[in-house]
## 1
Amino acid sequence: MIDNTYNFNRIWSILQKEYPHPDPALHYNNVLELLVATILSAQCTDAHVNKVTESLFRKYRNVEEFAGADPDELEKEVYSTGFYRNKAKNIRKSSQIIISDFNSRVPDTMEDLLTLPGVARKTANIVLARGYGVMGGIAVDTHVKRLSKRLGLTEHTDPVKIERDLMALSRQEDWEDLSMTLILHGRRVCPARRPRCTECMVNELCPSNSNESS
DNA sequence: ATCCCGAGGG
DNA sequence: CCCTCTGGAT
């Protein structure tokens, strides 16, 4: 891998000042709700997930109620987040597995979390970090993937390899904020479609900068 | 590589 | 109309 630690440090320093409090955007009151909200966030905006979970969490209050939910009713609740059949099925089945295999408690290890349907590395990393304070890795979603590539922090497209590159570049204490900061910057300044490079505070350091050079 | 899938923006 | 949104399973 290219030694771009120096460039990363400069970029990270600027982004940290720009986004001093990269607060998580999903709303939840416990680890189970965090898990459910994160499953729902696949290919869907966080704001929309929050709108759906507001009534969802009022209707289903614990893992037993999610596990015993009527499939059609649950589908209707999560309908607007897209992929509603898969998401409803995964939430129900994961809840059943949590009851049968993990004493009704959301697992706190990567290995156990990955046994839940609808839960892969990205979702597991978020549950571990925000739910249990375990920093085992970096959540790589569509924003982190896109920004990492544009900023020259990785040459890979495979999320696992991107995660490894980011972990090598950054300090462990920054992992959670790094993921959230890239997401915020991606939403506000560097979206997939039309990146606004002229407004970007790290454009001088960005290999993908599309500003007209004067 | 492909499918799941509605909502919102340009 | 088109593309994208805090992915995951086959």
## 2
Amino acid sequence: MTTATLKPQAAAPARRSFREQMHLAREDAIVSAVNRLLAEKGFEAMTVDEVAAEVGIAKASLYKHFPSKEDLAAAAMVRVMNRALAFLDELEANPQVTDPYERLRAVARWTMQVQLAGEMPSLPSENSTLRAALTTNKAYVDGLVSVSDRLGAWITASQASGRLNPQLPPIAVLYTLYARACDPVLGFLKGAGLYSDEQIIEMVLVTCFDGLRAR
Amino acid sequence: MTTATLKPQAAAPARRSFREQMHLAREDAIVSAVNRLLAEKGFEAMTVDEVAAEVGIAKASLYKHFPSKEDLAAAAMVRVMNRALAFLDELEANPQVTDPYERLRAVARWTMQVQLAGEMPSLPSENSTLRAALTTNKAYVDGLVSVSDRLGAWITASQASGRLNPQLPPIAVLYTLYARACDPVLGFLKGAGLYSDEQIIEMVLVTCFDGLRAR
DNA sequence: GTCTATAAATGGATAGAC
DNA sequence: GTCTATCCATTTATAGAC
């Protein structure tokens, strides 16, 4: 506003775009730090000071970008939701994986890879202030609904084709897949130090789809 | 000490036993409150003030019984571990359930029942101060080892008898069973409001042992 | 051992200069 | 928008009277 009255406007559009890109880059760095810390120690144990320190800016600057700690966490959840949507797109574009059942397996595998990479933010489902921030975040809710719808279609298709147990309610299958994102078995097995990440994922994938029982 | 020089000792043994019983009863009330709060909101979100309020005593009195918040949590874990051991005893004494595979199923079911009843304390595995309190707690460590050993025996027996997938490392099976204690799917499905607790447990039991895949 | 009162530290959030 | 400095509520833990 004030600069407009003092400076020529020729370069204004480009400059504003540049500034906005810087702005977005900074916010991306913030969300990355939040994402990592949420994956590492969870929402309650993560402090805003830590986030600021990891990004390398002052805490007050953080609050210029995000109005509260809850919004920081919500931004991280939006990002991971978008990553999930991008993966689903990739999967649908992949001619090698067209069977819905195989796609569900691929989703579960991806989910666990993200968790083992320390990039899966996990939030407590009980915290009410956090739930409020999430349920009022349109980007998050829309993303969650979109992911659920697409997975839901694959689930019912897999049940129709006879590869997935048709006795299980689709919602139970959906939640079971979601739960792989925070399955503590991955961390337990990693802590045992006996298996590689790939081996761990394959084992949990087998127990998830084939069960503990012998076939 | 001082009372000993002032009062006759005839009734001392009984009286001391009574006092000790009161002491234990109070500690039991404390651990119950901690157990409930840990199940409801987790370690970080639980405050010592809440515990004191729920028990109905002053916070300072709490610290006469337990030296730190971590020790409170450890006591709750010891208690649930003892409950688990008692259940294993019960199971071994039950002539109706002698097959190791059925025993493992029963353990998983019990674990989920406890969680759905809001009585399963859950701790973050990352918190270092908490890990220190747990790993230095002999009662807890011994209980955990004992439970793991007994389950481990049933696991290998079930694999030998061909009911449990022999390709899975026993430790992976063990961790998978432990993970039912904090499986978020139970809470998700409960939140959906479509199924009874018994139905929820049966569904998760099926997915755990039979897998999502059709048989 | 129970209480009231308080210390000591932390953490979320903001004021105000630049 | 970034910083320093600070506010204020909360939280773990303790002091000291009874």
